[in-house]
């Protein structure tokens, strides 16, 4: 469980340090708007996303088992975080996340990091597509400029409310959302080394005051972003609170562990390395204990940001630490500027994220697998969208492992990269 940082520090050269610094700054530029967007979609204050990226980014890189893993808030947590906040408030989420960190430390002590290979790929795919559907539905309010104040948490009532509110459709908001999606897509293809996400958000946000468009910014709805980290405090750890939030903590711990290890596997393939799974779980446990103490969200390995780090030249954990420190500096000096990002543009970013999570181009490939795997994928997807995350994960993993026991001798699944 030795952190990879301790292995790489003695071998650091001026050249390698320069590459990691540039990569860390590049990842921070991508992480800033994405973290804000994820926080807003989760029903949390916008600055909690930045706080999570700073604290999570530091702990995951400083104590993790991967050379290039980037930690922070991810789209996979939006559904569970929104649900916990809606039912228990922000204080409940903080307690649940803290408990999840402890559960991850227990999993580390039990050497559970190697168990990831036993989770059926059909369950992961169904769960991920289901979350993508829920994220997309949650962004339609801002993407269409409907201005619905209280959007239901459950999928079917949410869709019904959105349909009923179509009369307040705003063409300006919709145009900003579509323009952001098109700009991000075009810039990624035409100039992959350019921080296309930041450029697209800057251009579409600047268009709002320039053309006097009736579109809300972060500051309009939530007030200006805070420019400093709050003081760390312990959450409510009373026995009654712990018992009440244990199921939520279990889901957060499962998601953090699975997504971080999948992200580490993808990173290994990109740099021809092999991560230390139990060290990675240790880092995730520490990150999910530290983040809520500063008022942050759950932390996990972010596949898209990790891939960005590798493509930008990051090769050691120092890149992730630089990413966290860069975000801290940006938060301190540029919070007022970030407050002017427009909400339909952020909605466009998350709609694009949901599209990549769903991996629509791979659906024909999924349908060509065993019939039992297709049914397992569809069942997990259905339960994720229409029932409950706990039920979806519990049912999917149980049935998947039962099927796996019937297929002894079948090789472990070959995980594919997923842009989250």
Automatic annotation (TrEMBL):
It is a multi-pass membrane protein. It comes from the Bacteria. Residues 18-380 form the SLC26A/SulP transporter domain. The chain crosses the membrane at residues 20-41, 53-86, 92-110, 122-140, 160-187, 194-215, 245-267, 321-354, 374-403. It holds the Pfam family Sulfate_transp. Its main location: membrane. The keyword Transmembrane helix applies. It is found in: Membrane. Keywords: Membrane, Transmembrane, Transmembrane helix. InterPro entries: SLC26A/SulP_dom, SLC26A/SulP_fam. PANTHER family: SULFATE TRANSPORTER. This is SLC26A/SulP transporter domain-containing protein. The lineage of its organism: Bacteria, Pseudomonadati, Pseudomonadota, Alphaproteobacteria, Rhodobacterales.
């Amino acid at each position: 469980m030795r952190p990879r940082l301790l292995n790489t520090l003695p071998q650091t050269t001026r050249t390698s340090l320069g590459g990691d610094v540039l990569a860390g700054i590049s990842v921070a530029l991508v992480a800033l708007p994405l973290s804000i967007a994820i926080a807003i979609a989760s029903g949390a204050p916008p600055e909690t996303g930045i706080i999570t990226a700073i604290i999570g980014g530091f702990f995951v890189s400083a104590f993790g088992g991967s050379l290039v893993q980037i930690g922070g808030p991810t789209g996979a947590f939006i559904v569970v975080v929104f649900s916990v906040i809606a039912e228990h408030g922000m204080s409940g989420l903080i307690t649940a996340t803290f408990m999840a960190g402890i559960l991850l430390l227990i999993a580390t002590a039990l050497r559970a990091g190697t168990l990831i290979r036993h989770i059926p790929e059909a369950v992961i795919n169904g769960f991920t597509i289901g979350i993508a559907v829920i994220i997309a539905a949650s962004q339609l309010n801002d993407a269409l400029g409907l201005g619905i104040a209280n959007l239901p948490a459950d999928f079917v009532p949410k869709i019904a409310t959105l349909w009923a509110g179509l009369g307040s459709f705003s063409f300006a908001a919709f145009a900003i959302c579509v323009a952001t999606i098109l700009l991000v897509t075009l810039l990624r293809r035409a100039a992959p080394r350019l921080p296309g996400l930041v450029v697209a958000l800057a251009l579409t946000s600047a268009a709002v005051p320039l053309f006097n468009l009736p579109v809300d910014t972060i500051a309009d709805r939530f007030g200006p972003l805070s420019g400093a980290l709050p003081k760390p405090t312990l959450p409510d750890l009373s026995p009654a609170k712990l018992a009440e939030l244990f199921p939520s903590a279990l889901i957060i711990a499962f998601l953090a562990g699975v997504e971080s290890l999948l992200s580490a596997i993808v990173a290994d393939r990109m740099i021809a390395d092999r991560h230390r799974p139990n060290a990675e779980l240790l880092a995730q446990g520490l990150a999910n204990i530290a983040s809520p103490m500063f008022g942050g969200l759950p932390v996990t390995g972010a596949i898209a940001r990790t891939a960005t780090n590798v493509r930008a030249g990051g090769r050691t954990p120092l890149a992730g630490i630089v990413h966290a420190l860069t975000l801290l500096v940006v938060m301190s000096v540029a919070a007022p500027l970030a407050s002017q990002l427009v909400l339909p543009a952020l909605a466009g970013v998350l709609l694009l994220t949901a599209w990549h999570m769903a991996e629509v181009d791979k659906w024909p490939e999924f349908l060509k697998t065993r019939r039992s795997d297709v049914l397992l994928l569809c069942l997990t997807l259905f339960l994720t969208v229409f029932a409950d995350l706990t039920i979806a994960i519990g049912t999917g993993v149980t049935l998947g492992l039962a099927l796996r026991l019937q297929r002894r001798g079948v090789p472990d699944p070959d995980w594919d990269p997923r842009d989250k």
